[in-house]
Amino acid sequence: MRIKVFFISAIVALGAFTSCRESAVEMEDPAVEVVSELRRVNRLSLAEMSINKVGTISDSGATGFASLLNMLKVGDRIGVYSYHTYLEAYMDLDALDAADLEVYQDRRLVKLRLPAIQVRLSGRDATVTEEHYRVTGMRSTISPVERAQLKELMNTTLRQELKSTDEYGERLRANAREKAVGYFSALLQMMGYDSEITFK
Question: What is the pLDDT of residues 108-167, one digit of tens each?
Fold first, then answer.
């Protein structure tokens, strides 16, 4: 697995530190090698949240001529659909540079400044599940076109909600920061280093 291979490389490189990190970083500095290994991971996914929305398709609420037609039809027509997608918190390790890693060999201390946690809707295609369907009497069936339109509407609404409030994003970022600190501090502790981990 790529991430495991990367972390083994990082352990080997960090274990090679023999002196306190100078303010001026030279290319042979092991910190440069470690940062280079970290950057190869690119995006590191840290936390994920499932998000659901519910939408309906029915003849109720129609206006104008459509409303008159509905009054003449016998029966009911309703479909209830759930929209399921994911919000992901991740870290772009490509944003790291050598100045973000300081090793104090005499104190057995590593200071690591990680990139800010970012949040995005997962790249996976959102799924729509039919939760309830009832068409009776003279009502027409719910078409695939209507389902596709409802999916697009729920997707647009969700994006607008996420823009207007950052409640879900902040909860996810807090979870991701906690996981990142725990993971990297445990990794450094295994190598015999205390750590001070912050974020940009």
Answer: 888 999 999 999 888 667 788 899 998 988 788 889 998 999 999 988 888 888 888 888
CA torsion, points 25, 46, 173, 96, in degrees to nearest 10?
10
The two structure tokens encoding residue 39: 């950057």
69, 140 contact by CB (below 8 A)? no
Helix (H) or strand (E) holding 181: helix 167-190
φ, ψ at 8 (rounded to 5°): -60, -40
Q: How far is CA 75 from CA 1, 68, 69, 114, 158, in A?
A: 57, 14, 12, 60, 32
51/44 Cα distance (integer angstroms): 21
Please give the helix or strand (H or E) that residue 53 lies within, else none.
strand 43-58
pTM: 0.65
* DSSP state at residue 95: G
The strand pair at 117-121 and 194-199 is best described as unpaired
